[in-house]
Amino acid sequence: MGTAKTPISCCNIGSQFQIADAPKSPARRAFPCWPLTQMEIGGLDSDGRMFRNADEMWREQVGDGEPQKKSQWYNKGINYWEGVEATVDGVLGGYGHVNAPDIKASEDFLNTILAERFPDAGRGHHLVALVYWFIMRGQYGSIGADCGSGIGRVTKNLLIRYFNEVDLLEPVSHFLESARVNLAPENLMVSDLHKASNFYCVPLQEFTPDAERYDVIWVQWCIGHLADDDFIAFFKRAKVGLKPGGLFVLKENIARTGFVLDKEDKSITRSDSYFKELFNQCGLYIYKMKDQKEFPDELFAVKMYALTTEMPRQGNRPRLKRTTNRPAIIR
Which chain regions cross the lipid bilayer (predicted)? Predict the structure, then answer.
């Protein structure tokens, strides 16, 4: 799957509920004092139904080793987005006005990363990016990838100015065709040294990048469509696509705790702690992270993560609050 997940409203998810206790695993029974992980903490769906933990939800939604049921999950997500118009307001779920603050925050985050990770902030180097950007829910001579790229909004408004080449990955065909038009040379205000190179109509869970092609792989508002096992498998495959010193940027909606399942478009909004557990299973390290500002209060919080395949030096590690995970109330 791979179209951009809109920063959706959390107002229709239910005002308050108590998450039920998770069933006890063998390790939990042996060590009952261990704090619960986010995958063991409950969540709910967009109708307000509660799940005891993520495993219970995933077994219901994609089965347990049932390829046909998992295919249905992904096909329903694609079908949903095929009914959305290929416009900025369409791909941003009717919140087209968040485009400007989204791009501004992303650009500030990208500039910080490039200044720290690349000599002369990448100037004079051929930078390449891959972009995977779903619906809302470079000037550095490098190559980038836009995953779940939608109509090319992030590429056109941001990445094409910093990266010499940008590849786009998007499974919804009419979004990708719109991106081709939007990113045609005659529609860009950049030099001939910057271009959108490749347009891949491939789901995220099926994509494997060329080895060591990308300086940055940008994944925005789409990873919620992947089941946990496909999330982990994607990042493990995608690592081979990074150049030495390259990194991932993940920008996503954040649940307050546990997770929230969107039954309509077949996606999951994970908590920050849930993401961090998955990053650990992917063998990824948080180089930097930052909260999105200036979004409407009714939307989920949004966070940006810069992820590397090597452990950051001590000075670059983000300071994490020491918290104990336990069943809690979502308000």
Answer: none
